[in-house]
Amino acid sequence: MTDPIPSTVFNPEEFDTYVMSTYGRFPIAIERGEGSRLWDTAGKGYLDFVAGIATCTLGHSHPALVKTVSEQIQKLHHVSNLYYIPEQGALARWIVEHSCADRVFFCNSGAEANEAAIKLVRKYAHTILDFLEQPVILTAKASFHGRTLATITATGQPKYQEHFNPLVPGFAYVPYNDIMAIEDAITDLDEGNSRVAAIMLEPLQGEGGVRPGDRHYFQRLREICDQNDILLVFDEVQVGVGRTGTLWGYEQLGIEPDIFTSAKGLAGGIPIGAMMCKKFCDVFEPGNHASTFGGNPFACASALTVLQTLETDHILANVQARGDQLRTGLKALASKYSNLFSDVRGWGLINGLELRTETPLTSMDLVKAAMNQGLLLAPAGPKVLRFVPPLIVTAAEVAEALHCLDQAIAQVL
Length: 413
Ligand SMILES: *Cc1c(COP(=O)(O)O)cnc(C)c1O
What we know:
single chain; alpha/beta; Aspartate Aminotransferase, domain 1; Aspartate Aminotransferase, domain 2; 2 domains; 17 strands; binds pyridoxal-5'-phosphate
């Protein structure tokens, strides 16, 4: 493809003088994108299998999103929730009509959506669950729920909690996909005025290594929650909005959560977060929770366009087909380099390629090599490569990505 826009000069040292160093950035700066392709300031092109970390659902510069964003900014972008926002109502209605939820609260990010869910669980426990004074939320080891204080506490990975004590009380951790561990924890944590009020899990663990939930585990979990008056909360921040080949991740497991959250892909890269719940646990009243930016006309119109485009363009069918194609190709690479890789797993267009523990190679080594070959990938922990392209990725682009990865692997061997 030709490059009509002249490349610009970018100076990383100057950037680092002014911006706090919270990220280990790659030494490139992306300037422009189209579909599943990106170009950096030096004019080099890339196939984007990161999609803003599973966020750019419709890829870059999608005509439908460009149109909505341009029209909405000229009409109205923000007024606050002191007034009714028709775009927010329309988006909530779409979500309710296309999910198991009855009500929606809007905010601006995944962590905020999870905070809202945590607050809802606590109010439900204090007001409905026999006025439970010390509600505990069970979460999984290797989970990821965000970077605020409550959500790093919910996150079952000590590396995200280090340096930030004291954490938020009321959380306990169990291994993922292990039903015995859940049963034991429910019994062990039941004492005095404390007990498990909710279990919060990802239907597929994203950040923690692209680990799909086990259907039997989740179906048994649903029964346990029903029998024990425990709320089942799903963090769908990464897997919701078509990423797995179904609109919501919970559809892969054949059960419905009571509460679930969404963010990353919801507005295709425009910041938004949402917390959905069933009517019976909608205990929020005016004053309980709020967000200044949450649910503004700009973000909501963008999300509605993303969701409607998923439907009109039959994008879920593409996610399923491209996901199958990608996993087949990754399995072929895993057997070609069987001394390097131990597993290929995922649903739809969230997939992981796991490196053997014995190999000294890390996921970061391969991410860098792939970048040299013009393919952007993200690690999911030290040993897993994550593939989360835009949901509009084509068959030719998946084939090209697999070819680039093959070259990258050959380069690091
Ligand atoms: C990314 C992510 C979050 C955090 O979302 P932010 O928008 O970065 O706050 C929470 N949960 C899961 C599963 C995620 O993948």
